[in-house]
Amino acid sequence: MEELQELYKWYQSQTPKTAVYDPNVELWYLSVGFNAELGEFGNATDREKAIDELGDLFWFTAQLANFLNVSLFALRNSPVGLTHEGHEWSPPAGDSFAIAVHAQETMDWHDKVAKHARDGRDIYEESCLFLTRTVLTLEAVAEQINIPIADLLQGNIAKLQSRQQRGVLQGSGDNR
Questions:
Q1: pLDDT tens digits, residue range 29-63?
Q2: Which of 91, 81, 73 has its CA nearest to residue 140?
Q3: Distance CA 93, CA 82 (A)
Q4: Among 12, 111, 143, 163, whose CB has the most other CB atoms within 10 angstroms?
Q5: Rounded-to-integer distance, Cα 15 and Cα 24, Å
Q6: Whole-number Cα distances in Å, 24 to 29, 84, 144, 148, 152
Q7: What is the phi-psi region of residue 31: left when phi exceeds 0, alpha when psi lies from -120 to 50, beta otherwise?
Q8: Is 4 helix (H, G, I), strand (E, B) or coil?
Q9: In degrees rounded to 5, what are phi and psi of residue 87?
């Protein structure tokens, strides 16, 4: 457990180094980006593509956690994320469609972000709940596609650092 805590701490400290966006629209950018990556994961046609997109989903999750000033490890271990409005919640069984199960909650949370941008509504608790469930769902998917979390997170940072060194971090497309 301590190893996972250190891994998440390291990963969360690395993601800002590859973040390129206007801090004035950070929450909006991260919300839209997460949703876009969710769609890309859903369109993944092979295991390697799924791993790549899963890493990107973790990146957005870590950046959202940084925005909220909360650790990924604390989120994944939070009992708050396991109950909501009196209903018990547990991570999806871990099949390859686990993220699809999470998609409706993602859209609901994105709507709350939009209302926050429009009305200044406080969404801290709802965001922490969403991220707790997100971390647990991403872990379940990683287990299903047989990629150790350490390999996933280290590979994601290596990919982004390579793009950064080559000056192609911004832009679109996976083959940069």
A1: 998 899 899 889 888 889 999 999 999 999 999 99
A2: 91
A3: 15
A4: 12
A5: 18
A6: 9, 30, 37, 35, 30
A7: alpha
A8: helix
A9: -105, 135
Tokens matching residue 153: 């997170």
Model confidence band, residue 93 (pLDDT cutoffs 50, 70, 90): low
Which pTM does this prediction carry?
0.85
Instruction: Tell me how far apart the alpha carbons of residues 123 and 49 are, in angstroms, rounded to a whole number.
Output: 32
The C-alpha angle with vertex 165 and arms to 157 and 45, in degrees rounded to 5, equals 50
Rounded distance between C-alpha atoms, residue 22 and residue 14, angstroms: 18
Q: What is the pLDDT of residues 119-175, one digit of tens each?
A: 877 888 888 888 988 898 899 889 888 999 999 999 999 999 988 888 886 655 555
